[in-house]
Amino acid sequence: MGGRGSLARQLLVWQLVVVLALLCAVGVLSVVQAGANFRTTEGRRMLSVAEDTAATAGVRTALADPLRHYALAPFATTAQSLSGASYVVIAGADRRVLTSPDPRQVGEPLELGDSTALQGRSWVGELGGATVAHVPVIGDDGRVLGVVAAGQQAPGFWEGVLDSPDNALRLLGVALVIGVAGSLLLARRVKNQTLGLEPHEITALVEYREALLHGIKEGVLALDPQHRVTLVNDHARELLNLPEDAVGRSVDDLGVDERLRDVLTGRVTGADQVALGEGRVLTLNRMPLDVHGSVVTLRDRTELMTLQDELDASRHATDTLRAQAHEFSNRLHTIAGLVELGEYDEVRGFISRISNAQGRWRAEVSSRIADPAVAALLIAKSSLAAERGIGLRMDPASFLSTVDDVLSTDLVTVLGNLVDNALDALTEQGWIEVLVRLADGEVLVVVRDSGPGVAPELAEEVFRHGFTTKAAEQGPRGLGLALIRQTCLRRGGSVHVDGAVFTARLPVEVAA
């Protein structure tokens, strides 16, 4: 538990401190209000007592005759008893006290303060902690014969609380009971909401969470129900290229790719969703958290996709070899049949035509395409197209010299995916024409086919990852065109489609 006690006990103590402070404030206000009411009420009452005493004929007569001063005491005592005042004092015009409940005051000067009684005007104020009224006693000739002072001692603190017109003590008691009960309920509720964890345990969990978030090699992104970022670790910030002030901002304001935005916001659901980031292929998994939003984990699949591309290249090579073997087998069967028929001249002509056709394509590719990787790709794609009954030809304007390895790899990615896309688009016999040309500091790649092409309204959508007209049976086939766009944009180039013509531009120098 620790030396400071449990969380519930600490909350209870602090709540009680707040309640007691509130009660003290209420008590002080009650006393202040009671004091103000006391001064107003008692001031009027003491003024009335003093006026009644000063207006008594016996008081005036006794003050006018020094030999009758002894007769003043009964008047003062009677007024004090009937009114309940703390004291009633009668003094002469020379301020000397003539009668008082305290014998020690008799003969002493009456304390007047700011009183105007000796000037012939009544006065009410505070003297010595009491509310006092001074009223002059006026003789028949208009002279001031003396002063009648009636005072009521102000109550103490607790007397003020007890005598409060609002019954403050009862209110304080009710407030105390409600405060204690509310504190107990609050402590219990907080205990339940924190799952019984104490403050040091909650602190430890937060520290563990921070260490975990920043220590794992996966990106973690938390969003609230309004799709605002509430938490992001360093790896997620790097994978998504997020700004430093990403926390608190909406996903729509972060400038991420549309596909990424769909996955992060839940518009696209499912496990291991693939999306393209800043030069990376990402795998995302989104977990909704009821009313609290969602948590998205991200993994960098770039290296895995590179291995997959290499595997695809091996698979394409295998398919090409299989197609060539199938084609070679068919040709052998044809030659064997012609030999059995004794058509030796036809055999020689058939073999010559085959050799010339293959030699022409290889010669054409080699004469126009100096880069070995691009040339090998076109020769392999020709065999694959021939197996499907599709003709692959090259535009006469094609020309490509040897380029650096990075550009060569990008060209293989762009050209290979465009040719594969054209092969998939042709369900019947047709043709594909390829143009690869280096000019004005960029490589122009144009692939056209005899297929129906892309509808104008879908010209932009086809390059968005996940788009495909055959997604149901082929899965994420849209990744190829999305990779083409990402490759072109990364180099500062572009790609677009016009019907059945795809055009890509790749600058030789990568844009800064």
From TrEMBL:
InterPro entries in the cross-refs: HATPase_C_sf, HATPase_dom, His_kinase_dom, PAS, PAS-like_dom_sf, PAS_fold, sCache_3, Sensor-like_sf
Enzyme superclass (EC): transferase
Top-level taxon of origin: Bacteria
EC number: 2.7.13.3
Domain Histidine kinase: from-to ranges: 323-510
Keywords: ATP-binding, Cell membrane, Kinase, Membrane, Nucleotide-binding, Phosphoprotein, Transferase, Transmembrane, Transmembrane helix, Two-component regulatory system
Membrane topology: Multi-pass membrane protein
Localisation per UniProt entry: Cell membrane
Keyword Transmembrane helix: yes
Pfam families hit by this protein: HATPase_c (PF02518), PAS (PF00989), sCache_3_2 (PF17203), SPOB_a (PF14689)
Catalytic activity annotation: ATP + protein L-histidine = ADP + protein N-phospho-L-histidine
Single GO cellular component term: plasma membrane
Name recorded for this polypeptide: histidine kinase
The organism of origin for this protein: Saccharothrix variisporea
